[in-house]
Design a protein that fits this description.
alpha/beta; Dna Topoisomerase Vi A Subunit, Chain: A, domain 2; 6 helices
Length: 173
């Protein structure tokens, strides 16, 4: 594909902790939500400025979302990008979606693209958390889309975009 990104399937996302070591530290309790924006947008970022955006992608794994945020403009044109957004929130795990709720409010988000990994179809644990998240987003008044793709095109949104594939959006509410 001619980009500088490694095959993201080879990358693992680990939260490191030395909490059991003498004078060690934890990764955070709970582990943080990671915000990914395209590198080009960071050039004009003012220190201390709060990021405001209409739409975010809610996914898993900070490395995946960093890759996806830089690749998204390669598969969506600027008008489409305005609608689907280019900001990602990376959860430390599918069960930690509640951590994103205060961040969504602070960022003035209206719409959330739910793009958990493609194993949501086969993994009942991930599916359960996705459904709980969707219910809470509806209760909180957000619009939401389910972002879906063929698992053969990639496990995560990063893999999908690395393969220059466009996901499908299913409006939930």
């Amino acid at each position: 594909m001619g980009n500088s990104y490694p095959d993201s399937t080879l990358l693992g996302c680990y939260t490191l902790s030395s909490s059991k070591k003498n004078k060690g530290t934890s990764s955070g309790d709970p582990a943080p939500v990671h915000i990914s924006v395209p590198t080009v947008r960071k050039k004009n970022w003012e220190t201390g400025e709060t990021l405001k955006t209409r739409t975010v992608w809610l996914s898993e794994g900070p490395i995946k979302t960093d890759i996806a945020s830089d690749l998204i403009e390669k598969v969506f044109d600027p008008q489409e990008l305005f609608v689907v957004g280019d900001t990602f929130l990376a959860l430390p795990g599918a069960n930690s979606w509640r951590l994103a709720l205060p961040i969504l409010k602070e960022m003035d988000v209206d719409e959330v693209n739910l793009c958990f990994d493609a194993d949501v179809v086969s993994n009942p644990y991930v599916r359960q958390h996705l459904m709980e998240c969707a219910k809470e987003l509806k209760k909180e008044g957000y619009s939401a889309n389910m972002v879906i793709w063929n698992q053969a095109d990639g496990k995560g949104i990063d893999d999908l975009l690395l393969n220059c594939k466009i996901p499908h959006f299913k409006r939930l509410f």
